[in-house]
Amino acid sequence: MSVEPNAEPAGANLGAPAQTPASPDKGMFGIHGTGDVSGFGGLVRRRPANADSPRPFGGYFDEVHDALEEAYPAFADAVEKVIVDRGELTLHIAPEKIAEVCQIMRDDESLRFELCSSVSGVDYLGSDNRRLHVAYHLTSLTYRRRVRLEVAVAPGTPVPSVTAVYPTADWQERETYDMFGIVFEGHPNLTRILMPDDWEGHPQRKDYPLGGVPVEYKGAVIPPPDQRRVYQ
């Protein structure tokens, strides 16, 4: 295909202010009727599984489950459900029990999950009252195994900090608090870590505005998605 020299790129408006493309109602993956011009709005997010996975779980997952059940007398009250999905084991834990479970996961000889590599938040807006989830990724260096612990709370409900068990969770819990507003009780210094101390709101919550937020310390404004310049 030949292109005329110095021809203006198709669909571009050079020098124009931030605007939508010529066809703002159609995204790359079929999005319609919104201001999303990224193209990704047409993707369908797969909802997480809600029902317990049946036994046997497969691999080492049954051994981890049974070892925790044997080592932790309050297992039945602490473990809300067990999900095996996409080759990963997730134990959903009652929020008030998470620090106790982490202690057992780290110290029991049959488990030995010595490393907490990540603490992160998820907002399942519209799913249920306990929309805010905290995911803990644990690794056993002794047995070369991985497991995810997950707790779910409503906005404003605190979660016990696990920093006394896993010191690596210190800054990770601060980031989860900063981005999602989840309060970790017992954290030694639960302050913002990415946003300014006086910032209002938590940017990774699903009901946080995508644009039009004043950047106070620079006097600028982030435009909403449908008013941003498009590069093609």
Would you give an account of this structure?
The structure is a single chain. It is globular and about 55 Å long. The strands form three sheets. Strands 1-2-5-4-3 form a five-stranded mixed β-sheet. A two-stranded parallel sheet has the order 6-7. The chain is an alpha/beta fold and 232 residues long. The protein has a domain of 148 residues: 2-Layer Sandwich (Beta Polymerase, domain 2), CATH 3.30.460.80. The chain contains four helices and nine strands.
Question: What is the CATH homology-level superfamily of the domain at 47-194?
Answer: NADH:ubiquinone oxidoreductase Nqo5 subunit
Strand order of the largest sheet: 1-2-5-4-3
Helix content: 10-25%
Q: Name the helix and strand elements from N-terminus to C-terminus, one letter apiece.
A: HHEEHEEEEHEEE
Going by CATH, the architecture of the domain at 47-194 would be: 2-Layer Sandwich
- The CATH topology of the domain at 47-194 comes to Beta Polymerase, domain 2
> What is the global morphology?
globular
- SSE class: alpha/beta
> Which CATH first-tier class of the domain at 47-194 would you pick?
Alpha Beta
Radius of gyration: 23 Å
Q: Can you tell me the residue ranges where pLDDT is under 50 for at least 5 consecutive residues?
A: 9-28
Instruction: Give the amount of beta strand, in percent.
Output: 15-25%
Q: Helix count, per DSSP?
A: 4
Instruction: Please give the number of β-strands.
Output: 9
Give the termini distance in whole angstroms. 18 Å
Quote the average pLDDT: 83
Q: What's the main sheet like?
A: 5 strands, mixed
